[in-house]
Design goal:
It contains 2 helices and 10 strands, in the order ββββββαββββα. The protein is an alpha+beta fold. The termini are far apart.
């Protein structure tokens, strides 16, 4: 192990690709400092007593994808709260929110038409 600029580093090895590199120690965890054939810089890894990589966490791209999925789920949940809500268009025609998607909320009106509205539009046209 070496210390550089206040950070601790340990040499690690990817046995499968026969590569060596460095991992930064942070709060008892190891994060790769450079890219390997099988791993990316910044990826969390676990090593055995010989500092050989035995486990690797998700890549940055995979972590971002999970965050994106969480944001999508949150937006869908927000839109779904309005299913069943009664609204009134500016022209006085009443409608009901029938379906929620990531793109918006589908509202069916008494005149037989249906429109996809954003959450803000539904909120501002709620029947009082």
């Amino acid at each position: 192990m070496i210390e550089l600029n206040g950070e601790k580093y340990v040499g690690v090895k990817d046995v499968k690709a026969n590569e060596t590199g460095w991992a930064r120690m942070e709060e008892g965890k190891f994060f790769l400092d450079n890219d390997f054939t099988n791993y990316e810089a910044g990826q969390e890894v676990k090593v055995n007593k010989d500092n050989e990589i035995i486990w690797a966490g998700p890549t940055l791209e995979e972590r971002v994808k999970v965050l994106d999925e969480k944001k999508k789920a949150k937006k869908l949940a927000e839109n779904e709260k309005f299913v069943g809500a009664k609204v009134i268009r500016k022209d006085g025609i009443k409608g009901v929110a029938t379906k929620a998607t990531l793109e918006g909320i589908t509202v069916k009106f008494e005149d037989g038409t249906s429109k996809r509205w954003q959450k803000d539009a539904v909120e501002s046209h709620l029947e009082k």
